[in-house]
User: What shape does this take?
Amino acid sequence: MSPSLFWVIALFVFAVAEAATVGLVSIWFAVGALAGFVVSFFTGNLWIQAGVFLLVSFLALVGIKPLADKFFTSRGHQPTNADRVVGQEAVVIEPICNLENRGLVQVMGQDWTARSQTGADIPAHTVVIVDRIEGVKLFVTPKD
Assistant: This one.
């Protein structure tokens, strides 16, 4: 296999791995593989190509990652649908009983499994406030 083909395959593998992950994980190695690919046209020495790959990957990681982290964190936290329900009013559509592990509320047009924050039973049609979310369960207290 020619060195150029090796670097193209490595670039492809690292790019696919980056696309499959949520964060910036292997993009640095994809940049290094691209550099190794370019260098393969100037020298057939695999040690030099590998050295350029490692050096460029390291420099990309050290130089670009802090900038990328700053860019992504400066955009602010975007609340998810789950975050948005905390503090909202909800209506109990299935009575809430923590001992029987049952209860359902509707908040913002969505049905959620619910438990009582205090442990007290809450009858159907009661208006409640969402105190917190734990997994897929909302913990609520009656509004009164």
In short: The chain is about 45% helix and 25% strand. The longest helix spans residues 46-74.
